Amino acid sequence: MARITLDHIRHAYGPKPSAEKDYALKEVHHQWEDGGAYALLGPSGCGKTTLLNIISGLLTPSEGRILFDGRDVTRLPTESRNIAQVFQFPVIYDTMTVYDNLAFPLRNRKVPEAEVDRRVRETLAMIDLVDWADRKARGLTADQKQKISLGRGLVRSDVNAILFDEPLTVIDPHMKWILRSQLKRLHQTFGHTMVYVTHDQTEALTFAEKVVVMYEGEIVQIGTPVELFEKPRHTFVGYFIGSPGMNLLPAELSGASATVGRQTIPLSSGPTVVPEARVELGIRPEYVRIGREGLPIQVTKVEDVGRQKIVRALFEGVPLAAIISEDQEIPADPRVVFEPHGINIYADSWRVEAGG
Ligand code: ATP
């Protein structure tokens, strides 16, 4: 397994990029730990596949270097990088047995047959296909086939990293959940460096230790699921992660309080921002309390979502979502309190540290 260093990488598909907008991938400069599980998360077109292809060697970046354990691999082809890849659609040999599919990458590398047998049997147990070893792959279900693709990565002892590109797209919802949990367990047990591309936040948050959120060709935050929830670095992260996403209220700051419309909201500290910055308060619906105390709101809709309710309201004309318990009543004259520890402050979409 390897530590992956992305050293000032940028990529443009067109010739002679001159402005920021010409780059599909703006500057990426990070180090990903050996044995880490990373998810690249973001909407379509944000640059996830571009970055994954640079790591796998399908693409040479326009600028910067990529290193595996300190070794520059920027110009090495995929075959020389010892990378295992799992794509959206399973890549397997239908006419071979499940056993031979797993043995193939090892036999290709001239691994002695006794070692092949040991590793294939170990992998079959990991992916729960022991009883299917002698069956032809042709007759298997989509999720079993995808497990073989995964197994072909796990079976090799020499891989630097396993890369996944939306691997659960063709899997049905119930199996998705099972495969995801299984993958996480495999990672915890065997500690492979894994990079997993998805546009599905549930998939990213349940699989990864570190989620890399991408937006318009840029990494806007790398964080644990808790960090992304509590302290989104960019308003996009607040909006993209969470259901519903973070509320954003245009505000003006004055010392340790903020003004939204005609209302004043106390803050836990008074950060300084440049005078011309566009300031917004970001508050997750989980930190919005609705009751008889606080500032006035107009409730526009209440959605029952099982054990909770989502309240849609207007606060000073700005749409606001709150999550309340299913048994909570909304008073006739509803009011709102924002929990101070749940308020993040943004200047021109980027989070401002309290007091900074
Ligand atoms: P998706 O989830 O849809 O695959 P993504 O986040 O993986 O999206 P990329 O495929 O990396 O995004 O695309 C990033 C940007 O680069 C997009 O604007 C896309 O149109 C552009 N792009 C991707 N591949 C090429 C290419 N071969 N030639 C030109 N532009 C490309």
TrEMBL record:
Gene3D superfamilies, per the entry? 2.40.50.100, Nucleic acid-binding proteins (2.40.50.140), P-loop containing nucleotide triphosphate hydrolases (3.40.50.300)
SUPFAM superfamilies linked = MOP-like, P-loop containing nucleoside triphosphate hydrolases
The superkingdom listed in its UniProt entry is: Bacteria
- Report domain ABC transporter positions: 4-241
GO molecular function terms here?
A: ATP binding
Q: Keywords for this entry?
A: ATP-binding, Cell inner membrane, Cell membrane, Membrane, Nucleotide-binding, Transport
Primary localization class, coarse? membrane
Topology of this chain in the membrane: Peripheral membrane protein
Q: Does the keyword Nucleotide-binding apply?
A: yes
Location in or out of the cell: Cell inner membrane
Query: What Pfam families is this protein classified in?
Result: ABC_tran, OB_MalK
The record's similarity note reads: Belongs to the ABC transporter superfamily.
- Name used for this protein in its record: ABC transporter ATP-binding protein
